[in-house]
Amino acid sequence: MTTNHSKPRVRAVLIGLNHGHVIWVLSKLERADIQFVGFYEPNRDMAARYSAQFGFPLSMVYSNLDAMLDELKPQAAAVFGSIHAHLAAVEACAPRGIHVMVEKPLAVSSDHADRMAALARKHRIQLITNYETSSYASTYAARAIVESGPYGLIRKMVVHDGHHGPAELGVGPDFLSWLTDPVLNGGGAVIDFGCYGANLCTWLMNGQPPKSVTAVLQTLKPQVYPKVDDEATLVLTYDGAQAIIQGSWNWPVGRKDMEIYAQNGYVIAVDELTLRQRLRGEREETIRRIEPAPERVRDPFAYLAAVACGEEVVAPGSLWSLENNLTVVRILDAARESARAGATIRFA
User: 5 pLDDT exceeds 70?
Assistant: First the structure.
């Protein structure tokens, strides 16, 4: 699995293989920017299945994380285990100076997130969180339009994310088992898809945390998801603005869309490449050919490689940043507490 490249590739490892999104990586292991040198996965049967499916040698898979990191000395790690396992990955990588990218959200709780942040800062590693919408052209274009002048201040944000359910989609049993576990995932749809809206709204509000969070969590399909919520609605208040975040495993179709309503108009990111916009007094316009997302963020692994080799500095307010994602986890904590207590939770 070696190829001649004019520029040295970043040495990287995968930590965990039981997150369904890992298939995106395993199907394209040969890259010009990253050399995947090893995988950590204690489930040998799962490792053997992926080895046969994607053609990498089973000898690349380690069952001891510390041994793999010490032997291979990677520069970066991408974590594809349960959300609960993110902390252990950072505990292993940070003291060794290994930069880490986790799949969304950053952590199952603020306790885990704060411990991860302390390790990252102490050992001066970059700890970034990957969301699909961070690579959407529409995400950046929508914000640029709203900030272009005539729209005025943002007053309301509405974010919809989800699909008709992981079990209904047929995700693999290894993935489903922790995705529907209140400890390993931290919750159901509120964690899986509520995090997108929290990430985007924190970014649109320039890092400002909400004043309060009110949430309603339901399980509409208890026969399928007996331990976690499958329907989540969060209302966040800010000085002069409000956000409504809807994460669901009950949508009839998959969706990741965002609505931004400002004083004088609105912009709606319909999908990755489509926008709708309208100023007061004008007709709505649909834009189907928008500028691509910034080059580095179109591919999360290209972004990880650039961060790991020092070519890219993670802006504190960016969608990927530790600062943003610490706020995201606080919002998710508050949402779960609000639902349990049946009350609005106010941020300090």
Answer: no
